[in-house]
Amino acid sequence: MAAANYGPRVLGTTLCLLGALLGAGDAATADNIAAYPDKPIHIIVPFAPGGASDYAIRLIQPGLTQALGQQLVIDNRSGAAGNVGMKAAAHAAPDGYTLFFGNVGTISINPHFFPELNVAPERDFIPISIVAETPGILIASPTFPANSLKEMIDYVKAHPGKINYAAAGISTLNTLAMEQFRHVAGLQMTQIPYKGGAGPAVVDLMAGNVDLMLVTLSSAAQHVKARKLKAFAVSTRERAELLPEVPTLLEQGFPEAVSSSWQGLFAVAGTPQPIVAKLHAAVLKAMADPDVQRHMRTAGMLPTSSQTPESFKQFLAAESTKWREVVEHIRAAEKDGH
């Protein structure tokens, strides 16, 4: 059988048809982006309902729904310090219909603490905007001799290794932040590990069974107000509305120890830029609601947002560097037996 002879006319027609098909695909993609969103959006929260991350996203959920014109479905997938939900989000389609509500632990700490983690946030996610910051607060037993941060530092230095502090989870922000502060302040202290979160540790602190702790503000504010605990400093750059009389670590000469338990919204890597821009605008609109801001402050959070996705990306790069160095310092100290 003779080979077919495809002349210039047939070949040209084929190329035109192929070009038309490719053009139609591009047009369909452009139409999908322009119509976004035209169905519900799922937001994966890597922690159980009722926690700080869950509370924050549910506060802005109505505002996002109104701004985007579509229902937002909160999908709580807890486990492995947030890694279960983060992995699920990282492997979702990059179409803007699955988002990730990450925090300092999942995005900036876990990649350095869990070497087996096959998620790289800077590779697998696109930052949209920060949403909230929750201060940590340095607290002490009511029987602890010191009444200020300076007095506490002087007392610990006068009793090296004899003062202890509660640590609720070795990879948690509060424990790492306490380690960072201890390092920059030059304090020799003994860590007392606790299971079950901050609750049991705070109870022991009030009973005088441990001396110090750095914990999320919301876990201690009511006890500080009731004078069942002493408060020496909050960890954010600005004072907390719940306890405005408590100075910051920054005010007291420790800029390196500034930290917060922040939450933010992320898209899957590969999501088209126009969709990211729509989502960023929706977050800004939701965060501008005075009721959202009031509820956040009442819960001990600082409402905030990123001016641009790029500014959030820069913030994340600094956070990742900071917590990587803290984790490396802790591992080096453990290796040396200190």
Strand content: 15-25%
The CATH architecture category of the largest domain equals: 3-Layer(aba) Sandwich
- Side by side, the strands of the main sheet go 2-1-3-10-4-11
CATH class group of the largest domain: Alpha Beta
- CATH topology descriptor of the largest domain: D-Maltodextrin-Binding Protein, domain 2
- Average pLDDT across residues? 89
- Rg estimate, integer Å: 25 Å
Pick out the low-confidence regions.
1-11, 24-28
User: What is the helix tally?
Assistant: 12
What is the ordering of alpha helices and beta strands? HEHEHEHHEEHEHEHEHEEHHEH
CATH homolog superfamily of the largest domain: Bordetella uptake gene, domain 1
Instruction: Let me know the number of strands.
Output: 11
Largest sheet: 6 strands, mixed
Based on Cα principal axes, name the global outline. Answer: globular
Q: How would you briefly describe this protein structure?
A:
The strands form three sheets. The protein has a six-stranded mixed β-sheet with strand order 2-1-3-10-4-11, with helices on both faces. The protein has a three-stranded antiparallel β-sheet with strand order 8-5-9. Strands 6-7 form a two-stranded parallel sheet. It has 338 residues and is α/β, with parallel strands linked by helices.
Record the SSE blueprint.
Elements: H1 8-35, E1 41-45, H2 52-68, E2 72-76, H3 83-90, E3 98-103, H4 104-113, H5 121-124, E4 125-134, E5 136-140, H6 149-158, E6 164-167, H7 173-185, E7 190-193, H8 198-207, E8 212-216, H9 217-225, E9 230-234, E10 261-268, H10 273-287, H11 290-298, E11 302-303, H12 309-336
Parallel strand pairs: 1-2, 1-3, 6-7
Antiparallel strand pairs: 3-10, 4-10, 4-11, 5-8, 5-9
